[in-house]
Design a protein that fits this description.
The structure is a single chain. 52% of the residues lie in helices and 10% in strands. The protein is built from 16 helices and 5 strands. It has helices spanning 2-9, 13-20, 24-28, 34-50, 56-66, 73-82, 152-166, 181-189, 202-213, 224-229, 235-244, 248-258, 263-270, 274-288, 293-304, 309-319, and strands spanning 113-121, 127-135, 140-147, 173-176, 194-197. With 324 residues, the chain is mainly α. Strand 2 (127-135) and strand 3 (140-147) form a beta hairpin. Helix 11 packs across helix 15 and helix 13 (263-270) packs across helix 14.
């Protein structure tokens, strides 16, 4: 309007600006940015074409810090919006969760038991463990074993007491993180109806429980062949051969470990230094293929179930030319 007043009515620029409340600088301004706007648009189009995952922020930082342009960010963003280069915000995909099929419920007592371990800490920081057994039919607690340590012998004893009182369950399913085919084979040979690894998904878990409740044995498909091949192997014979490689002193140390003796007690009983006991323990672990004292003790006790300890000791001593 100020320019129109100057051109049509011939008044001065100063008077026109005062009447319209416009500064003379604004009146005399001539836009010279059309070429630069085209250059900005060209740069933005090329950047977004080459770098499809770049948004406005990365494009502007590249132009300012890498190319050295001093264009205002509001100006660049205005052109960026006009070109409709905004990245589309992808909506989050909804995860379709299938409703799990209800598990088959036992119809009578002693049809299915559930066992689990729990642990907690006392006020003084000591940890204790609980071994729980319940009947899935009426949720009756059959046994609760509580102690600071629950070795396998305690678990076996608790199960034997329940079986003597209630009788054996219809089916037993083993749930374990150990997927060794030999362990699975031994569990099935001892009467387990199924073996469920802890890595099994919901579909495998449902399939296993359905098969066992239908009086069918179940083993994961991916382990069937390995379990079948492990059928002909005798783990007790392999264990006996490994124990036969122990020296007489190492056998005495292993026997005391199986009885729960500490390293210091073993050293005092055999009249040897503590470092010698530790060296024997390392050799025993290597020869038996175990990683700790518990596994070594379990391996020794498992062999004792097959043959008496005296006979085992005689076999070891005869192997090394010694007498009991």
């Amino acid at each position: 309007m100020a320019k129109e007043a100057v051109l049509k009515h011939g008044i001065s620029i100063r008077l026109a600006c005062e009447c319209m409340s416009v500064s003379q600088t604004c009146f005399r301004y001539q836009p010279i940015l059309s070429d630069e706007n085209a250059e900005i648009a060209d740069w933005l189009v090329r950047l977004t074409a080459n770098q499809r995952n770049w948004g406005f922020g990365l494009c502007f930082l590249f132009l300012r810090n890498v190319k050295g342009f001093v264009w205002n960010h509001k100006r660049v963003y205005r052109i960026y919006r006009e070109l409709e280069l905004n990245l589309r915000i992808k909506p989050k995909k909804r995860i379709v969760r299938e409703r799990p099929e209800p598990l088959a419920a036992p119809q009578t007592m002693n049809e299915c038991w559930s066992m689990d371990f729990m642990h907690d800490q006392l006020e003084d920081g000591r940890s204790y463990r609980l071994f729980n057994v319940i009947d899935d039919f009426n949720r009756e607690g059959l046994a609760i074993e509580v102690d600071f340590s629950l070795p396998s012998e305690r678990v076996i004893r608790a199960l034997e007491q329940i079986i003597e009182w209630r009788g054996e369950p219809v089916a037993v399913i083993v749930v374990s993180a150990n997927e060794d085919p030999m362990v699975i084979r031994r569990a099935l040979d001892h009467g387990a109806a199924g073996f469920i690894p802890k890595s099994a998904d919901l579909a495998e878990l449902t399939e296993a429980l359905t098969a066992v409740l239908d009086c069918r044995d179940w083993v994961p498909q991916r382990l069937l062949r390995a379990v079948a091949e492990a059928d002909s192997e005798d783990p007790d014979q392999q264990l006996a051969e490994r124990i036969a490689t122990l020296t007489p002193q190492q056998f005495r140390v292993l026997e005391m470990v199986a009885d729960g003796a500490l390293n210091k007690q073993i050293g005092d009983e055999l009249n040897i230094q503590l470092r010698t006991v530790k060296a024997h323990m390392s050799e025993i672990f290597a020869k038996l293929g175990v990683r700790n004292r518990t596994q070594a003790g379990i391996a020794f006790r498992r062999l004792e179930l097959v043959q008496p300890s005296v006979a085992a000791r005689q076999a070891v001593m005869s192997e090394h030319g010694d007498e009991v």
